[in-house]
Amino acid sequence: MLTAPSNVYLPRPAASSETRLVSDKFEKYVAENVDEFAKEIIRLASQRSVSARREGIEECAALVEKMLKEIGAQTRILRIEGAPPLVFGEMKSKKSGKTIMFYNHYDVQPEEPLELWKSPPFKPEIRDGAIYGRGVSDDKGELVARLKVVQSYVETQGEPPCNVKFFFEGEEETGSVHLAEYIEKYGDLFKADGVIWEYGTVDTSGTPKVTLGVKGMIYVEFVIRSLSQDAHSSLAAALPSAPWRMVRLLNMLKDANERIMVPGWYDNVSTLSEDELQVLQEMPFDGDGLKKSYGAAGFVGGMTEEQAKKALVQRPTGNIAGIWSGYTGPGSKTVLPKEIHVKMDFRLVPEQDPEDLFKKLRKHLDDNGFADVEIQLESMEPAARTPHSHPFAQAAIAAAAEVYGKKPIVQLGSPGTGPLYLFTRKYGMPSVDIGVSAEDGGIHAPNENLKLENLVKGMLWIAETMEKFSAA
Questions:
Q1: Do 121 and 251 fall within a single domain?
Q2: Largest distance between two CA atoms of the chain
Q3: Burial class (CB in 10 A: 0-12, 13-18, 19+), 236
Q4: Number of structural domains found in the chain
């Protein structure tokens, strides 16, 4: 039964009512139609679209295009050989010359482990005021919410407050590997005055978060092969060991203070501005909770909580993501492994150039006797960040305060990575992460969920941001 909780329609905070631009009619329409919006999320989330297995991708793209057409958007299915289709939509407005683009993805993570789901992942259902199912938060609930924001404008005012573009890809969960190629081929379609990025949250206290960027990344795999086959470990007295050589390589990549030792790695790392430092200082950070969640005795290098908070925003990292070699089963096996593999991700901050840094990494190995070591480049992308002072960011921040009746959390950048740079760098477009999800929504995990109360408020937050930016 699709019954929304009775409190999803909340009166506007009295202190902010005079500055709200979203009309009462629009707000009432959203609240009264939450059941229908939930059905549409269930409709989309019922369609499998697991990009890791290329499962249901074409069918889901067709459904997304159909849903775009149902709200009156002009649509196109864009294609590149070997890539999932990209669904593009557009709706014009006479109210403003500005254009806002919604970026989302219609693919989802695999649903395993199945035994931990309380209901089938691709048969979404509503329980206790929330929708449960794979993708209902990341990212199909967000996608549908944006469609329904525009539909709500059409139904109540005839058109949205500005021009709108929709840009929905089908391989975000596998790294958006063809996104740059799509933008190169269809570049003019993606021009806009601002981008509302894929996902946005409230924290566990119900406070909205405005996120203004992401870190960049270089992801590599190092391979050392010393022998043509595994050997008996007694031969280690005479034959070379690939694992020991890898240990020496890794030891020259970072020092005891966690600083990456590749020459020139920090050349373009800038300090935060006074404005950014102020934003960072005001951002809440539960350091004790973070350590407790992961069973950590302390922060790396003995950092204080304030230092850790700053590091998550502005510190490059060099992380060992995986190592495998030799025998790792139960008991003992005396073996000298023929080879070893190590996967590493290097997180980057704004102004660092991943292509330049990858060359510096290769040279560092060559100059130190590791020229024969293979470096397999998995992916690379620069960091991206919209200035806190940009009118688009300010519109999202002000809108959050008015819709939720509390000051939002402003996050300069996520410690994670995404293809945001393709828009902020190529076109110079500002971007904000705002939306309808929650930090505890279980994304990528069993029992992923989206609360209907968050759906309503998040839609109003998006609408108010559109209104404020269009009027600026």
A1: no
A2: 82
A3: middle
A4: 2
Are residues 422 and 449 both part of a single domain? yes
pLDDT tens track for 444-456: 999 999 999 999 9
* Structural domain boundaries enclosing 38: 14-212+386-471
Structural tokens at position 10:
């909340």
In whole angstroms, what is the distance from residue 35 CA to residue 4 CA?
A: 6
Residue whose token pair is 């007694």? 234
- H or E element in which residue 167 lies: strand 163-169
The confidence score (pLDDT) of residue 418 equals: 86
- In sign, the C-alpha dihedral spanning 305, 309, 314, 315 is positive
**Mean pLDDT of all residues in 407-411:** 95
CB 388 within 8 Å of CB 212: yes
Q: Which DSSP state fits 115?
A: G
Residue 214 and residue 417 in contact, taking contact as beta carbons nearer than 8 Å? yes
Are 423 and 459 contained in the same domain? yes
Tens of pLDDT, residue by residue over 6-50, are 344 444 444 445 588 999 999 999 999 999 999 999 999 999 999
pTM of the full structure: 0.87
Considering the domain architecture, whether residues 442 and 454 belong to the same structural domain is answered as yes
Q: Which residue has the tokens 């969960």?
A: 173
Gap between the terminal Cα atoms of the chain: 42
Q: How far is the C-alpha of 254 from the C-alpha of 72, rounded, in Å?
A: 54
Q: How confident is the model at residue 226 (pLDDT cuts 50, 70, 90)?
A: very high
Centre a 10 Å sphere on the Cβ of residue 382 and count the other Cβ atoms it contains.
25
Mean pLDDT for 350-372 is: 97
Q: For position 158, what pLDDT does the model report? A: 97
Rounded distance, CA 25 to CA 256, Å?
60
CATH number of the CATH domain containing 187: 3.40.630.10
What angle is formed at CA 175 by the lines to CA 290 and CA 293, rounded to 5 degrees? 10
Residues paired with 163 in a beta bridge: 99
